[in-house]
Amino acid sequence: MTAYTPSDQYDDAWFTPGWTSQDTDGATPPQPDPLPDLPKITVVGSYIQEENGHPVNGSILLQADKPYVVKATGLRVVPHAKRVWLEAGKFEIDLPVGDDAALDEPVNMSVEECFPEGRKYMIRVKSGAEGPQPIHTLTVDVPYQRIATPRIHNYGYRPRSYSASAPTSTHTPMMYSGDGVPTDPHINGDVYLDNTNGDLYQQQNGVWVRTGNILGPAGPRGPAGAGAVSASTTPQLTMTSWPTVFEQQATGFGGSVVQTMGWDSTEQNWYTGQRDITDTDLGRMRVNRHSRDGTYLDSMVIDHGGHGTMALERAADGMYVWVGGNVTDDQARALTRIPYAAGTTVDAATQPWLTPRPGAYRVSAAVDPVHRTLAFRWQTNNVSSPTSTAFVDLYDLDVAAQGTFEPLGTIAHPPLTTAMQGFTSLGTTFYDYWGNAPDDPTVRAFDWGTGRLISSQQVGAFSSQRPREPEGICVYDQAGDRTRATLAFGFTGGSSGARTYSVARFPFPETPDWTPVDYNASQVTPNSPNYVPQYRIDGDRVWLHFSFTKTGGGAWVNGAEMFRLPPEARPNRTQRLEGTCGSWADSSSVVRFEVTTNGAVTLYDKRGLTVWVGADCTFWRT
User: Fold this and answer.
1) Which of 326, 352, 328 lies closest to 338, judged by CA?
2) So where are the chain's domains?
3) CB neighbours (10 Å) of residue 85?
């Protein structure tokens, strides 16, 4: 049996053999009713990597999509998310039968494969099966139900203090949690945590009273500890929308593609790095500075600067660029730190060399400007990234800038299946960025403490651009509010001699994702893929984004339904929405929509419009 892992939110210590509810008075507390005797089937799975046949490392998350309800007694067994780890690429777990005759209704189970290219799907464990059942034979064609992050619960016995000699009814306070302000009545003394903002409440005289907040005010930044990495709010890599920062902006030199980029929140400038003069002059590097919207401002040239990788450091005396040094070709074996000076040329080979790992190959660096750390990637062999043996160190940036390198941590960097296009670090997480044009690239996240893969996400930004080679990833923070940092990433564009660069980003932490909405394609047609109807729920507010033309042409009819929102995004009363339309001579471009309690978004306009109509608007659910 896999041991309990304290850092794994899906492992619950109270369900681990050997753990018990504590009873200081020595009396046996009342025991819960036994679990129903549901039959179980052994389910197995096996995974290997296509490129080398090695076992896949990772885990499988499983959770029933609804409670198991025993028909005869009405007993409800509430689902609990469970993680099973792959061992040599295999797993085995006993799961309750989902179509047993004793159940009130069939139960399916959500499955999430937690490793690169892992899937999310639904299964049903069927009765009557003999022997271990391969998990892929149990799939059912029903919509996937997301496995929610477990909340704080107490699964122990009813909170009373028991004594062998003198039982009492004194209540021991319980800890609960949820999203939003608590409303359910509880026993006085119980405590509740609002997961959305950290507010704490206590039940007092039958009323929930806010008593504080577990986050507290932000304190001053202390020095980096020896061997520990400070925590960070994690960007939402699971999002399916990527806000554009700028698109198809010119670079300092049109003859080669951008290789890397960085962001300076202090002066609100972007920096890009590219090979200079010719595509084959790999040792000569141009560093460009751009405005916030990507407009080219100026540049400097660094001879013997490597293939084009760089890291940015904002210091008290200006901006510094970390690039390759000690290079005889385009692959660096040391670093050097050069002040950015527009219009100048500097030879990196003449600068002081920094060698955190003497003898290492293909070294490069990235900076976390929020936590002021330096990530240093190095290889033990001089080969391309898909076949490399690579590691990443983490250093205190200010100490490293003085030439002293004492790792705060080191993790292995697993091989890639295609070319690496960048990496960066933010707080407790290391990120890499890889892929080939024009396919969607991948961003992976690794825990600095354990080296374990946290998540893997493909990126679909700028899907229509060509050549669309992914190049460069960095931390994108906001001056004055660096706690809400996220990641930005870039793509090349344009033809030789007129190269361009585009940058998008992941949403900031706690930003809700856009969700596409189904629509009747025989009636309405989105103006472009960017205008497919979408909604975003932010608390009790719903945001809408859509723009349609009438399929087949013709005039819009007053009362035409655009699309229908799902139940979770519907208002509790009819609300009017203001939109706009295409060019309409001698008349207003404003159009009126309404959203009703059944989720229908309807156009109300009697002018017989023949142009596109749409809206970027918001309404309240309550």
Assistant:
1) 352
2) 13-138, 175-213, 247-505, 515-620
3) 14
